[in-house]
Amino acid sequence: MKAHRRKKLGIIVFIAVGLCAAVGLTLFALSQNIDLFFTPTQVAAGEVDSGQRVRIGGMVKEGSVSSAEDSLLVQFVTTDYVNDVPVRFQGILPDLFREGQGVVVEGSISDAGVFQASRVLAKHDENYMSPEVKAALDAAGASAENHSISPET
Amino acid sequence: MIPELGSFSLILALCLSVILGSLPVIGAQTGNLLWMSLARPLTAGIFVFLGIALAILIFAFMTDDFSVQFVAQHSNTMLPDRYKFTAAWGGHEGSFLVWTFMLGGWMLAVAIFSKSMPIDFIARVLGVLGILCTAYILFMLATSNPFDRIVPLPPADGADLNSALQDIGFIIHPPTLYMGYVGFSVVFAFAIAALLSGRLDAAWARWSRPWANVAWAILTLGIALGSWWAYYELGWGGWWAWDPVENPPLITWLFGTALLHSLAVTEKRGVFKSWTVMLAILAFAGSLLGTFITRSGLLTSVHAFASDPDRGIFILGILGLAIGGSLLLFALRAPLMKSEASFGGNSREIFLLINNVLLVVSAASVFLGTLFPMIYQALTDDLISIGPPYFNAVFVPLMILLVLFLGIGPLSRWKRTSSAYLVAQLGKVAAVSLALGVVLPLVVLLEFSLAATITVALATWILLAIVKDGGNRIANKSSVSKGLRSLPLSYYGMQTAHFGVAVLLVGAALTSYFSSERSVLLVPGQSTQLGGYDFTLQGTEAVSGPNYIGDQAEITVARNGETVKVLFPEKRVYLASGSPSTEMAIDAGFLRDLFVTLGEKRGEQGWTMTIYVKPFVRWVWLAAILMAVGSSVSALDKRYRRLRKPTLDTEQVPGHAVSGKLRTAS
């Protein structure tokens, strides 16, 4: 093999090995870090194993938010207007968290059927509904407009 | 009437863009000098009309013209003037106008600062940008005209600017980021023009470099500003969250970084041409991808604008045409991109190639993680999200490798470097870095920490390699000051930016590993401890501003009984929209930040709050400033300026004569 061919081959092998390593590493990391998303109806149907780390999206049920007087505990109900999932959260809710608005919670469900949230996400822009919340409502057959969650304008 | 003039002005800019995108390019292909010389005046015209359109939109905001839908949605009579002035980029339509105006600005800059380039080349560059401009303005007029009216009954008052946006960060972050983003269109246009003309030589690389440097510097600042703003405004307690909309600028930045290094090789050695062109296309694609992701609403993120599927499809169309077209051209012109020189095993070319591969792989991994939820949903119909652990797991090892090679690259030589030379140069540096990496954390922390050891060792590695390289370069000069003066500006730029990498490394790693936070419920008089500081809630009082009311807490921070600082975090409610907003209180310091975000009132007087102690977090943004300064300083190097003096043969015999002359000059 001529010298310049060998050099070219060396470069190609180097790039190929690097790419394979990167792809392998990436796929491994991806498989470790997927958070599956479920709707309240799916939760009610028992699709989520207790202890599994998941995300649940829906609306914050009107009148369901209650917070403890002497601790950070907050409890509310997230709903797709067909099924409800009670949520417990130790921490500070984001600014845009509100009753009747969309919310995505991250955490796991306990044996008692209560969702222990480690993170609560509410949207930055009020005119915007996250695809996850929308999917949850669509799946439950509830039209967004009927529940006054569409843009306030 | 006046808003209609805005639309009209956009239409005029569109017409000029269409002409710019066609006649000068055709002229360049057929040798029609008149058509080529149209490029500069047309560019000026586009800039002026885009400027008028933007001015009219700002005027509509300042005069509270709520018959304009965009103004009604993003402003309010009570909104302070500084936000009315900048609310133009507070929503999709207006921000796209700003984006397009930025493109116009870059085009004008190219038209002005290109006097030394051959006219056919500049006609092609501006022509390509004209095509891009046409697509953007068409998109605006077709799907998101900021001048659309609400007829017949305009609202009495506007819905107000999103309260989270009412901040200094909003005034400076979006324009800077857009400017950086759009700057890569210029580098892309240079690459396409070079492909069109079939002249991929050192001259092309040299013309591109200052533009790439400046665009990269501004993008770096834009990203850093966004990070800084998110840090104190959103209260995530971090400087980077791997949010789907933070990622595309990062992808563009990584491609851009690879491009800067690849351009250096192409300019100096005439190799890696196809690779450089590819990177220019990829960096540009990254910027379009960012637009697409933000404006299509396909991914869940803090940035997503209220979305409309038509827009997504339109931008996807622009993305497809631009990328597909340029790749096709790339394939057709591939035979032209022969290397002019060869290089050996340990050459600087190889180290820069490794740099490029690492950067491109990290960009690809971020890209994959960002789009994976979309792909997964298309394949399985399940919604998923990819969290920060993925990105950290993939990104951090790659960056460690990159930093290792960063130490070697500048010390290696073009063409061929012997391994013995590298070992002789860097052996001591490596030994000292390792030793310091092990000892320093032990002394400071009194315990072994792998993260701190790696961080200190790598940062020392970069620093000592810089010192060593600088020392080598002035070794044969009579005095140090004479030696330092003899080094070119671009060398200082490079080393400043590399020093920035060391600072970034220290900031990013230490703040990730040693930050602490705690959420608590405090009543006045009660205190809590974190990171050696005592935080005491003294009380709260009601406050009000021009368009909000709120509560302000007074929190004293003490260390060993001595008060360090009094912090005043606020919780506001904006009157027009009724939306709450949290104002953090931050005590910023060179070595650590203390900050408090207020939650909500509990019981009679209690408040929930989160307290953070974040060591070295400022270093992250300091690093971005160093990198931006370094990159800009490099762009000012006199070898780029020398080119700007037109000479006889650059005017008459475009290209070939120039490139020959330049190569000897280098």
Identify the notable features of this structure and list them briefly.
heterodimer, A: 153 residues, alpha+beta, OB fold (Dihydrolipoamide Acetyltransferase, E2P), 2 domains, five-stranded mixed beta barrel, 7 strands, 28% strand, elongated, disordered C terminus, B: 666 residues, 4 domains, six-stranded antiparallel β-sheet, four-stranded antiparallel β-sheet, 22 helices, flat
Would you write up a description of this structure?
The complex is a heterodimer of chains A (153) and B (666). With 153 residues, chain A is an alpha+beta fold. In chain A, 29% of the residues lie in helices and 28% in strands. Chain A has two domains: 1-34; 36-147, Beta Barrel (OB fold (Dihydrolipoamide Acetyltransferase, E2P)), CATH 2.40.50.140. Chain B has 666 residues and is an alpha+beta fold. Chain B folds into four domains: 1-166, no CATH class; 167-335, no CATH class; 425-514, no CATH class; 516-616. Helices cover 64% and strands 12% of the residues of chain B. Chain B is built from 22 helices and eleven strands. Chain B has helices at 2-30, 33-37, 39-62, 69-74, 81-86, 92-112, 119-143, 168-197, 202-234, 247-269, 273-296, 309-332, 348-380, 388-408, 419-445, 450-474, 480-486, 489-514, 618-635, 638-641, 648-652, 656-665; strands spanning 384-386, 516-522, 527-530, 533-544, 548-559, 562-567, 570-574, 580-583, 585-587, 592-602, 606-615. Classes of the chains: A alpha+beta (153), B alpha+beta (666). Chains A and B meet through helix 1, strand 1 and helix 3 of A and helix 13, strand 1, helix 14, strand 2 and strand 8 of B. Strand 1 (34-38) of chain A pairs antiparallel with strand 1 of chain B, so a sheet runs across the interface.
